[in-house]
């Protein structure tokens, strides 16, 4: 069994708002055994993979991390056209599948965030979150653009030596503003967020409200936290 299975089955249980004891009872196993499966201490058999897939209404491929879609749908790359076939070997060897998958993860997750912001109706919070994303995109665009030293830097006005520090500092300031607003404290430019205006959320609510977007959001959270845990 791969490392994705324990994380995914745990996430699915929490989405449903189920205790480990309740899920174990309905799955016909002991709580201790389910705990071992969720922690990756023990591996289950294929029969249990099918059983738990049916229980949560997902595909086995999704449980095993082979698909980002709960139904098991796979990303497919269309056959190249004649024009595409004429591209250079370097261009045609781009990791298209990875680009498609990562683009979907990020785009879907951002759509969920902006949907929640829209429901919250707080212009200041929306402005700060948007600014954070914009700086992040700016940083990545400039890094990728500047990877080729022949590309003219006149496109950017902040000098290269200061760009990394200043852009990171700006993101930290925006992040601090967002934290203040969501903690109920006003900033110099915006009033505090009324917690009652923020919709009640849970993994189950998000899955029901955004069924097409939630899988990407959950995978992005999972993958990011795995990277974070390596730094702890």
Provide structural commentary:
By secondary structure, the protein is mainly α. The protein folds into 2 domains: 4-63, 434 Repressor (Amino-terminal Domain); 90-229, no CATH class. It contains 12 helices and no strands. It has helices spanning 4-16, 20-27, 31-39, 46-56, 60-63, 82-85, 89-92, 96-120, 123-145, 163-182, 203-209, 214-229. Helix 1 packs across helix 11, helix 2 (20-27) packs across helix 3 and helix 8 crosses helix 12 (214-229). Mean pLDDT is 85; it is low at 74-86 and 88-93.
Give a brief outline of the structure.
This protein has helices at 4-16, 20-27, 31-39, 46-56, 60-63, 82-85, 89-92, 96-120, 123-145, 163-182, 203-209, 214-229.
Task: Tag the structure with descriptive keywords.
232 residues, mainly alpha, 434 Repressor (Amino-terminal Domain), 2 domains, 62% helix
């Amino acid at each position: 069994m791969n490392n994705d299975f324990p994380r995914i089955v745990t996430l699915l249980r929490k989405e449903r708002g189920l205790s480990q004891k309740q899920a174990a009872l309905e799955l016909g196993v002991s709580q201790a055994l389910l705990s071992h499966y969720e922690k990756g201490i023990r591996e289950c058999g294929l029969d249990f993979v099918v059983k738990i897939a049916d229980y949560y209404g997902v595909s086995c491929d999704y449980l095993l991390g082979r698909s980002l879609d709960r139904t098991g749908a796979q990303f497919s790359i269309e056959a190249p056209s004649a024009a595409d076939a004429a591209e250079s070997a370097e261009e045609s060897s781009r990791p298209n599948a990875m680009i498609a998958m990562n683009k979907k993860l990020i785009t879907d997750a951002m759509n969920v965030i902006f949907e929640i912001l829209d429901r919250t109706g707080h212009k200041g919070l929306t402005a700060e979150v948007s600014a954070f994303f914009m700086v992040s995109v700016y940083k990545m665009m400039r890094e990728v653009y500047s990877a080729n030293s022949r590309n003219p830097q006149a496109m950017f006005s902040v000098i290269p030596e200061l760009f990394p520090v200043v852009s990171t500092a700006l993101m930290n300031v925006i992040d601090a503003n967002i934290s203040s607003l969501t903690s109920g404290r006003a900033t110099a430019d915006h009033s505090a967020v009324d917690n009652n205006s923020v919709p009640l959320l849970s993994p189950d609510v998000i899955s029901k409200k955004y069924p097409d977007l939630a899988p990407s959001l959950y995978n992005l959270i999972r993958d990011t936290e795995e990277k974070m845990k390596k730094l702890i």
